Amino acid sequence: MEMLTKLEELILLSVLKLGENAYGTTLYKYIKEVTGKKLSLGGVYFPLDRLTQRGYLGSYTAKATQERRGLSKRYYRLTQKGVTALNEIHRVNSILWADYTDLARRFFK
């Protein structure tokens, strides 16, 4: 399994959650809202490009609109490789987090 950064993991999960509304700005706002962390917009776009280049995400460009002064939006979607990665991340996290409550209770007595 190729290791992903936590931000890459958050981006893949956010693309999944946002579905057809997954483009740079909405991903940025959603991750910022969920994590409560201040990110730069570029801090989301660079990993989006990496994930696309590595085959975890596909992207397409929508038609340009006047509301965006002739600029188009780039939308993202999970590829099969992205889905497989999320399944593996979930499997590993489930193992690592199993029994957390019991273990933490004993540790923090």
- Structural shape: elongated
Give the distance, in angstroms, between the N- and C-terminal Cα atoms: 36 Å
Task: Label the CATH architecture.
Answer: Orthogonal Bundle
Strand order of the largest sheet: 1-2
Rg calc: 17 Å
CATH superfamily: Winged helix-like DNA-binding domain superfamily/Winged helix DNA-binding domain
The fraction of residues assigned to DSSP E strands is: 5-15%
CATH topology term: Arc Repressor Mutant, subunit A
- Overall SS class: mainly alpha
Q: What is the strand tally?
A: 2
User: What's the order of the H and E elements?
Assistant: HHHEEHH
Q: At the first level of CATH, what is the class? A: Mainly Alpha
**Which stretches are low in confidence, meaning pLDDT under 50 for 5 or more residues running?**
none
| pLDDT averaged over residues | 91
- Tell me about the largest β-sheet: 2 strands, antiparallel
Number of helices: 5
Write the topology of this structure.
Elements: H1 6-18, H2 24-35, H3 41-53, E1 57-61, E2 74-78, H4 80-97, H5 100-107
Antiparallel strand pairs: 1-2
Provide a compact summary of the structure.
This protein has helices at 6-18, 24-35, 41-53, 80-97, 100-107; strands at residues 57-61, 74-78.
